[in-house]
Amino acid sequence: MDKEDELFDLSEFMMKHHLEKGLIGINWIMVGADAYAIEKQRIRGLVDNCHSLVVKKLARDRRWEFVDMFPLNEMDAWLSASYKQPQASYEVCCSKIELK
User: Fold this and answer.
1) Which domain of life does the protein's organism represent (predicted)?
2) Which one of 12, 15, 53, 58 has the lowest number of neighbouring Cβ atoms within 10 Å?
């Protein structure tokens, strides 16, 4: 698997950028639930509700006939994301930011 095609690890990203204690702002995609809050609770060891997002979506979206017969509590879910950021250099508030 290429480095750019590796699975995106939200937990690792949040901890690497010190976002586990309070997110200031981040743009992802519009979702029907707060994925950041769910991941924050999972990192803290409180509860893991990631699976419930997928179960709710499949229950509402009757696109596939197998869903009614599929044991949703036995399903695994993961996210794979790839993003290519072109190299750039910015100056913001007298600080230079370089994206490589």
Assistant:
1) Eukaryota
2) 12
